């Protein structure tokens, strides 16, 4: 788990109040990496960003936030902080107008530079829309594309679940601090993504779900992907923002048509009128991207034999009555994150049902 040189300086640069991304990039362009910025001195910095901004940068008290970020990073081998200029930094984001200076990543770091497709849509999706998102994500992930979305309810969740169920890769770009997963109903899904894929945030630890952060987060979903597929969307929605950003960034935009009577189809129909590519099958997307099916070799921590054994341990511990996740962890000996992955797979297979209050119940075999 290598660290960027002078990581504390990078954190100081991004945590200083009033020093936004544009100012950060001006400083990096003028002086080089963050340690060189802070070594430049007040007068040199002021010549680039002005005295007031320089004063804020040099006098901000970010020591506690920096310590918390460094402690978070040291909390596990799956925790990373990636900065501009790192080899692991997503190269696709360097093509957008305002790439983040720093990213917090939980999960598989290599996915930041794998070919990806974004699947987005309504939070208030229809059951058919969620199922469509799952099916497309499973097919496209099976073809070797990482599936990118925003961990929201509705279409986003369906896209992540479909990729995971197919044994594929998925990335979730979130609009909160990486330690503040939102919404709470997707906590189990987030745990599965952290184990099998990656969760990414540009926001400092502790950042709550502020409304303004989610549209801004969408530029990263669009920017890291080769294209954006919109499954369901109202005319006024964040999904159309993502599609608009994708078009501006030179990415492909795809949309699935729906019923003329459905409000959730109107956003897709608007995109189609504006030139988005109509999609009926996953092959439509693959052909437009000129993507030849490629299944990358994965270095998964769990073998097929171990996965089957873990599943049997879970089912034995679950029995046939409702059971909470904590109780399952204790009785099965599996970690909460591992349990979340298996439970999600069993739920998609129709063998387990999730109940209110974070409980699960085994379903009868059919």
UniProtKB/TrEMBL annotation:
It comes from the Bacteria. Residues 302-358 form the DprA winged helix domain. GO terms for biological process: DNA-mediated transformation. Residues 81-289 form the Smf/DprA SLOG domain. Belongs to the DprA/Smf family. This is DNA processing protein. The lineage of its organism: Bacteria, Pseudomonadati, Pseudomonadota, Betaproteobacteria, Rhodocyclales.
């Amino acid at each position: 788990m290598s660290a960027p040189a002078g990581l504390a300086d990078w954190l100081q640069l991004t945590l200083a109040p009033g020093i936004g991304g544009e100012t950060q990039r001006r400083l990096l362009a003028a002086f080089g990496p963050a340690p060189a910025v802070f070594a430049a001195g007040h007068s040199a910095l002021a010549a680039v960003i002005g005295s007031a901004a320089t004063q804020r940068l040099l006098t901000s008290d970010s020591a506690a936030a920096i310590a918390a970020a460094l402690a978070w990073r040291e909390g596990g081998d799956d925790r990373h902080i990636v900065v501009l200029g790192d080899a692991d930094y997503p190269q696709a984001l360097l093509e957008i107008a305002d790439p983040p200076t720093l990213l917090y990543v939980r999960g598989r770091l290599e996915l930041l530079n794998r070919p990806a497709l974004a699947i987005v849509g309504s939070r208030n999706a229809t059951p058919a829309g969620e199922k469509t998102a799952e099916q497309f994500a499973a097919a496209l992930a099976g073809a070797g594309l990482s599936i990118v979305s925003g961990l929201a309810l509705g279409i986003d969740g369906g896209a992540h679940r479909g990729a995971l169920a197919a044994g594929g890769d998925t990335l979730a770009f979130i609009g909160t601090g990486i330690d503040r997963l939102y919404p709470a109903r997707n906590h189990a899904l987030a745990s599965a993504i952290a184990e099998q894929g990656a969760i990414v945030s540009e926001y400092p630890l502790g950042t709550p779900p502020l409304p303004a952060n989610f549209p801004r987060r969408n530029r990263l979903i669009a920017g890291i992907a080769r294209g954006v597929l919109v499954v369901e969307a109202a005319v006024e929605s964040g999904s159309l923002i993502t599609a608009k950003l994708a078009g501006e960034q030179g990415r492909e935009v795809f949309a699935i048509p729906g019923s003329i009577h459905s409000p959730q189809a109107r956003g897709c129909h608007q995109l189609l009128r504006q030139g988005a590519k109509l999609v009926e099958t996953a092959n439509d997307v693959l052909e437009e991207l000129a993507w030849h099916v490629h299944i990358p070799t994965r270095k998964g921590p769990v073998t097929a034999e171990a996965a089957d054994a873990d599943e049997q341990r879970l089912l034995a511990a679950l029995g046939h009555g409702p059971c909470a996740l904590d109780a399952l962890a204790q009785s099965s000996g599996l970690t909460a994150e591992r349990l979340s992955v298996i439970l999600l797979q069993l739920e998609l297979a129709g063998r387990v049902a999730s109940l209110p209050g974070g409980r699960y119940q085994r379903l009868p075999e059919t």
